[in-house]
Amino acid sequence: MKKEIYVVGVDVGGTHISSAIVALHQKKLLNESYATSHVANMEPKNHILQTWANCLNKTLTAAKGLPLTGIAFAMPGPFDYAKGVAKYPEGFKYGGLYGTNIEKSLNSFLGYERVLPIRFLNDATSFAVGEAWLAEGKGYRKQLCVTLGTGLGAGFIENGIPVTSGNTVPPNGILWNLQHKDGIADDYFSTRGCVNAYAAISGKTVKGVKELASAFDSDPGARQVLETFGRDLGDFLSPWLQKFDADALVLGGNISKAYSCFGTALQQVFNSNGLSIAIRISEHMEKGAIIGCTRLFEDSFWESVSNNLPNI
């Protein structure tokens, strides 16, 4: 039996950080080690790093003698994933970290008995890797994993490995920045896209998609926004699902919780395009990203991705 490898997985979101220890061979997140914290993302560098460290230190304390191999981050872009350097523009979320080497800077805030190596993977890619890995026994070969929330995240996975180049995927394997209607995909397939669409047809303001989903049966405007969202998402994803020859689509992020409101419209578009594909709604959400990024410390996975980590 292989000796277990324990890695701390970290998911960094727009306003939160979550961390936990993952037992790699078991693909198991140790729930007793899970910690999460709100992050004020416009604060100066040291404030952000201290907040991250406070969360991580709770997870490290829960290790209680387990031999930890390293720390893996599921990190949003723009980021240099190979060098571990933040590229968030000043004046935007996490802008205080611009130019910071996270590994070198964060370790001084951590209260662990030794310095742990840190590796980085895009957050949407981490989610995709985790979802594909956890569904390994279901026989899917090529999966497109999409997160629908604050923004649009995507990861193309073939036999467990992210695909970020070649003529079957968009540049860097990302979708958010592709042209769509009068802007880019991220403007439409996101919380703000849905909120803006509802305001345009109703003149009313809602906080998010959960509110629209709750009003789906009683508010024709909410129904129109979510059904249009499903049709547009189907039209946008269909060419990429066909190019990639995907056999599964995985949906995560908060908007995916409203799948019952937009899923029928999405499926109708796929049917009209001759796409027969399994659609799965993530059961893991951010914990999928935490588990996925820890594969960076699995030797065979690291060998496959280490020379292709994007700088985006």
Question: What do these coordinates show?
Answer:
The chain is of the alpha/beta class. It folds into two domains: 6-116 and 287-308, Nucleotidyltransferase, domain 5, CATH 3.30.420; 138-281, ATPase, nucleotide binding domain (Nucleotidyltransferase, domain 5), CATH 3.30.420.40. It contains ten helices and 14 strands. The protein has helices at 45-62, 102-107, 123-134, 185-188, 191-202, 209-214, 220-244, 259-272, 286-293, 299-305; strands spanning 6-12, 16-23, 28-38, 68-75, 79-80, 85-86, 118-122, 142-148, 152-158, 161-162, 179-180, 183-184, 248-252, 278-281. A five-stranded mixed β-sheet has the order 3-2-1-4-7, with helices on both faces. A five-stranded mixed β-sheet has the order 10-9-8-13-14. Strands 5-6 form a two-stranded antiparallel ribbon. Helix 5 (191-202) packs antiparallel against helix 7. The chain is globular.
